[in-house]
């Protein structure tokens, strides 16, 4: 990730000589040392917030530079094929890469830090009773409250959620990176979310990097209902719906945790449609086998910083949006409400999702 932009921006345009070459190379060497050191100090056992911020910012900047340097080198190859050779062409390409990277970095920071856009999606549910037609399920996921203090952002998100007049609000995992003592002030505003039929929370993989049970307990203390391989039956106008939730697969390493869909659905009225919160889209295989009507997931961040979504497709069946799967199961994959690591989103805007449920005709 550092060698490619070093070549495209420093070595080729300077022909590996002169002051710019020496200064630029020194800067890349410093990045080569500082980036892993900051990430280890920030996200490893030391858990130093200031180091995490430095490492995350550097990681985002380097990824953008790497991605666009690759594109720049492809363009440079094309220019050579049409006869544009020499250091001047390399300098034009390098300048273009720098300008694009600076613009996209600024745009990415803005996209990540603002209150997410509201994305409204109509979903037809087989067997949904008439009394539940138009039920509004607001989805939050991947808030990743972490080293950068986002308490004010958290309050504005709550205001936006309440403005959507939700019947149900679900937070589909990856609430935080850190302990309750470190992050509770950022999460506390979620106590203000209003949803008459329930506020539900499941764990994501990042809860299992720390003490997931403490976060389940904390969310209970501020009025949310954790769905720890469990379900609730909600009712409106005499008609009912099952809302269930399962743990993230990374919970398998923690006693008493790990996804158990059979336990989550045990005792449900199978004549009722099921809306299941499961953090990872890949969990839809089990949901389909169990006949779940709708799974709601996050985890992918929609790629967060282009073109990372191509790598996500190697691990997950869907990157974002509504998709259909075996046995009539539908999956909605949110791009996420916050961000992890680099405080940037490039061509993958965050979202507060409003799923409006309707009977399937």
From TrEMBL:
Gene3D superfamilies in UniProt: 3.60.21.10
GO molecular function (one): UDP-2,3-diacylglucosamine hydrolase activity
Pfam families (UniProt xref): Metallophos
InterPro entries, per database record: Calcineurin-like_PHP (IPR004843), Metallo-depent_PP-like (IPR029052), Metallophosphoesterase_sf (IPR051158)
UniProt entry keywords in alphabetical sequence: Hydrolase, Membrane, Metal-binding, Transmembrane, Transmembrane helix
Membrane spanning residue stretches: 19-41, 53-79, 91-110
Any one GO BP annotation for this protein: lipid A biosynthetic process
Superkingdom field: Bacteria
Domain Calcineurin-like phosphoesterase span(s) in chain numbering: 135-302
Annotated Gene Ontology cellular component terms: membrane
Stored PANTHER family: PHOSPHODIESTERASE YAEI, TRANSMEMBRANE PROTEIN WITH METALLOPHOSPHOESTERASE DOMAIN-RELATED
This protein's name: Metallophosphoesterase
Organism: Nocardia coubleae
């Amino acid at each position: 990730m550092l060698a490619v932009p070093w070549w495209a921006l420093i070595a080729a345009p300077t022909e590996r000589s002169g002051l710019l070459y020496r200064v630029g190379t020194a800067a890349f060497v410093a990045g080569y040392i500082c980036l892993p050191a900051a990430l280890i100090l920030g996200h490893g056992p030391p858990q130093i917030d200031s180091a995490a911020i430095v490492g995350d910012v550097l990681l985002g900047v380097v990824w953008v530079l790497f991605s666009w340097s690759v594109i720049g080198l492809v363009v440079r190859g094309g220019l050579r094929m049409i006869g544009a050779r020499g250091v001047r062409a390399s300098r034009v390409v390098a300048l273009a890469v720098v300008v694009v990277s600076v613009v996209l970095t600024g745009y990415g920071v803005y996209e990540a830090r603002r209150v997410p856009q509201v994305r409204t999606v109509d979903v037809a549910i087989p067997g949904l009773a008439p009394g539940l037609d138009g039920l509004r399920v607001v989805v939050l996921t991947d808030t990743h409250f972490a080293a950068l203090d986002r308490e004010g952002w958290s309050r504005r998100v709550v205001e936006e959620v309440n403005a959507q007049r939700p019947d149900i609000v679900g937070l589909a995992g990856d609430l935080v990176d850190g302990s309750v003592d470190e992050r509770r002030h950022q999460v506390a505003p979620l106590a203000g979310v209003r949803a008459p039929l329930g506020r539900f929370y499941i764990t994501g993989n990042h809860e299992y990097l720390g003490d997931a049970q403490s976060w389940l307990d904390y969310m209970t203390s501020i009025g949310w209902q954790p769905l720890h391989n469990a379900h609730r039956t909600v009712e409106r106008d005499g008609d009912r719906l099952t809302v269930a939730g399962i743990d993230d697969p990374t919970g398998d390493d923690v006693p008493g945790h790990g996804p158990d869909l059979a336990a989550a659905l045990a005792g449900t009225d199978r004549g009722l449609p099921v809306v299941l919160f499961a953090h990872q889209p890949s969990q839809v295989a089990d949901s389909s086998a169990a006949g779940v009507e709708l799974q709601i997931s996050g985890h992918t961040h929609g790629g967060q910083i282009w073109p990372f979504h191509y790598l996500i497709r190697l691990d997950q069946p869907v990157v974002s949006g509504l998709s259909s799967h075996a046995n009539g199961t539908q999956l909605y994959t949110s791009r996420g409400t916050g961000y992890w690591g680099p405080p940037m989103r490039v061509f993958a805007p965050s979202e507060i999702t409003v799923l409006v449920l309707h009977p399937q005709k």
